[in-house]
Amino acid sequence: MYLAKIYVTYKPSILDPQGEVIKSALTRLDYTGISQVSQGKYFEVKLDARDVEAATAEVKSFTDSLLINQNTETYRFDLSIVNEDEATL
Amino acid sequence: MYLAKIYVTYKPSILDPQGEVIKSALTRLDYTGISQVSQGKYFEVKLDARDVEAATAEVKSFTDSLLINQNTETYRFDLSIVNEDEATL
Amino acid sequence: MKAAVIRFPGSNCDFDMLYALQDFGIDAEILSADNNDLNDFDAVFLPGGFAYGDYLRTGAIAKFSPIMAAVIQAANDGKLVVGVCNGFQILTEAGLLPGQLQVNKVPGFICEDVELLIENPNTAFTNAYETESIMIPIAHGEGNYYADDATLAQLEDNHQIVFRYAQNPNGSAHDIAGIMNERGNVFGMMPHPERAVDAVTGNVDGQPFFKSILSEIIAGD
Amino acid sequence: MHSDNEITPEMVRDSKIYQQWGLTDTEYQLIVDTLDRLPNYTETGIFSGMWSEHVSYKKSKPILRHFWSTNERVLQGPGEGAGILDIGDNQAVVFKAESHNHPSFVEPYEGAATGVGGILRDIFSMGAQPIAVLDSLRFGELDNAHTHHIVDGVIAGIAGYGNAIGIPTVGGEIGFDPVYAGNPLVNVMAVGLMDQKGMQVGQAKGVGNSIIYVGAKTGRDGINGASFASAEFSTEHESDRSAVQVGDPFLEKLVMDATLQAVRDHSDIIVGIQDMGAAGLLSSSSEMASKAGMGIDLDLNQVPQRETAMTPYELMLSESQERMLFVVKKGEEQVILDLFKKANLDAVIIGRVTDDGRYRLRFNDQVVADVPVDFLTHAPKQDLPMVAPQRLAILKADQFVPDVTDLKQTVLDLVGQPTIASKSDLFRHFDSQVRADTVIKPGGDATLVRIRGTKKALAMTTDVNARYLYLNPKVGAKMAVAEAARNIVATGATPIGITDGLNFGSPDNPEVYYELAQAVDGINELAKQLNTPIISGNVSLYNETDGQAIYPTPMIGMVGLLTDVSKATRIGFQNAGDSIYIIGETSASFNGTEIQKMQTGTIDGQLFEFNDHDEITNQKLVLAAIEQSLLASVHDLSEGGLIVGLLESAFAGHLSFNVVTDMTSEFLFAETPSRFIVSVAPQNRDAFEKLVGESAQKIGEVSDEDQMTIQSSDQLLQLSRQETQTIYQESISWRLKA
Ligand SMILES: Nc1ncnc2c1ncn2[C@@H]1O[C@H](COP(=O)(O)OP(=O)(O)O)[C@@H](O)[C@H]1O
Ligand SMILES: [Mg+2]
Predict the structure, then answer these.
(1) How far D667 CA lies from chain C's nearest CA (Å)?
(2) What range defines the domain where residue B52 resides?
(3) Residue D403: which domain range?
(4) Ligand nearest to the CA of D427
(5) Which cellular compartments is it found in (chain C) (predicted)?
(6) CATH number of the domain that B22 lies in?
(7) Active-site positions of C?
């Protein structure tokens, strides 16, 4: 069993309204040293696959087609081997 | 300048409706080996701080108070040192 | 002449759209997104709502519904394909219209009447309008239209921008409220014309929208 | 959590764990005596759930019994998921209110969201299509980050659930006062429409019939939520909470549509439907059996589960959302199972109806609970002592006198008070128009929703001014009913029924219990005269933080019927040159008002008077004038008095007014009840004056200038509409951003 951790962020050119809102909230709360905040998505997916190559290919495939919108988002991911019922975090 | 990468996930007993719906969509798309999907949030925050300890304390503080909902979410984070204008991903 | 209103799991403006079409004498019925055949229909409407809860991203999961292959086929065949609100979001996710609808610039759902400028009056969706500006309700949290500069330039040059906001409520690029494809048969907009067809609700500015479509479908018959 | 095997009945007795679950020693002893043995862990748990105040109403029932709930329209009174009224043409309207106060304090977004989800299930479990949601909210003053956080979360939660499921949130009310800072109120009301032949009840009749579980899987969400809602809040124990319930409006939309389809197509085989609310599977199943005079036998291994290793106690007490129980005729189950399966929903037979009156639970082939159903569902009633609050005895009779030295500034300050200012910056987050039936949108008096295919429309509103109740619980409660009715009448509709949300402090405090009894009395008295039976409602007690109770806050949800929607009237002035009249007398009514609060920081003194007869007469007059199409606009007067009423009609109509009155200027702020302002077109003036006689006084004209003027007997007030409206419109968002 594989565990894919997938990190999705906006492409640099895309305005991230939520990140902006959080940044100004942090500033109001006196966290003054903060220069940039961006909010993305984080997925944990457990999957069965023949081997690491197959798992990698599968993660790429479904992330490209479903998890992200290629107009605005980009991603990276880590893959690890886990036991059936291991806790994830 | 520090870059904090913060990964937020639901606590184990909290219902994650999004994860369920994404999982069943993946299954319909014939990604049949998938046994679990959870969707969380991913933040990248750039901040100035005296040293690593101060940065760590600050990240913990604002994540607890603003970025996460302590009733339902939990998180972990990595901290790295970056240059002012380095691209993040 | 027959129109289909597609119901995705989570669609919630399907009946509003159906009734609006029927009020204008269009023979319409609701069709589940589980179907995969639209041969019997001359026009297809994707209504508002929260298809699949809008989980992950608006329209992201809906684009893989069985019906969507048929919707793409219908678009390629030159039939009218209209998406309102969530329907617009689904059409962009499915690639039938360019760009993407993002979280409103000031995050949060907004429901209110907004003024729209009719940017291109010579379309299948606007030809019955006799004014340049109308009031139509919006109701969305993710209506902030994004497309890259090249795409925006193309939309402008080809007059594909059909409606613009008079006062931008959500941060949309170029104040875009509604666009069509180059061929002019696929159209999407965030505001809800189907909520503005009945005098009793106090606003009839959506009527010419449906009249335009009616005359277009009849002409195509 | 231990499993049942580990904790023996003796351990339950000796450790007194039942006390933590809210059972008293006396109650526990009663269980032991009645069962004639020690209850085991699971049994003790289910008694504690069923006997909590939130589920059993054991403390409030002796008072609620007095509610008047029958007239010619009532098809279903209190006792079911929601009440039902006949509205002609074989149609019926269904409505009820629900509170989610404590959950919304702990977790504002999910607390409010699941409140909406829960009240909608109450409606569609009766077989009705929900058509509208309303809310009634109370928060602390908008001057601190914590309150901002609660306000933002609650508003987003109502929006997040209601918008997604596609039921418009059409109205409500929001008030601010320091007493709610640690205990906000989040009441939601839902209204549904049905054909009378589709009526469903939550009963488990017929031996051998199947109990079918439908919808979301069960997790450990909100375990002991019912006991939690029935206990006082202490800031120290704020972190001592159960797993937060998370709502899934997408799933509920599927459950709702499938349930309504089942009712439409298979009413012949459906015996009963019940939603799972407080105390989840436990209360829904036991109440269905008890109401039918039957027993029930459940196999808990069949319950769809989201988490592993759940115990019977957890399965029964879980408050996971979006779940329903169906009772279906034996042998016909497959039809229902298939229907839900087609909608991609879990539907499983989990038990049967029996005729032995026992509530029996099986788990892993063992009987883990076996108790008499009726005993379980009928908590021992408690008659509590009551005494008039000390504070009422010492209130002074004199009415407060507003300081109007700088009249203009006083008015500008008043319209910027959060309780007076427009709430549109908050309610714009709600989709108020989905279903395309909203005739009068939020922002007026009552909201109006048409019934498609007929000429009818339903008016709805929620109201209560808790400050009045604080000064006089009974009269204040009457005034809440009166205000709700005035709001309904202002649209042209006739009030037909009430649901309530009784938010009070701890009933164990005799002063609070007195307030509750008095409020119910007041509601009842006026409801009878208005012919608006109280057909459903909700009680939320223990609204206290660190020993400080909220103001007595009985929210009144009211529905009215307008038989010809084309007659609907709105609050906004229509045309320059129309005459403005005030209906009803104005007197020195200042104690408990917004101006007193603004100028003194508190409310004090005996409440001004309320006259039932004037109220009813004035309402009838307005309805008669609307019936004859004589009125261009109608607005009732409430918080802020005449000045606020005039301004709101001006803002809504984008027109101004020139008013002359022989009152002195402080009377502009009087909150004397039973008043309306109306505007009348020139051609209708004579007919109107003939109809109303002395009951209305002409006070001015509508104008299309920017300047609004009021010449009182002592001062001339001049205001710019644009400037004043900006304050009224933006004040809440300014404060939230500050
Ligand atoms: N929380 C809310 N949700 C929806 N509508 C609201 C809310 N609060 C206020 N409104 C709307 O704003 C208008 C004015 O409300 P309110 O001042 O309470 O009226 P009134 O004094 O006539 O009872 C009404 O139409 C009401 O429905
Ligand atoms: Mg009013």
Answers:
(1) 35
(2) 2-81
(3) 399-421+570-738
(4) 1
(5) Cytoplasm
(6) 3.30.1280.10
(7) 85, 192, 194
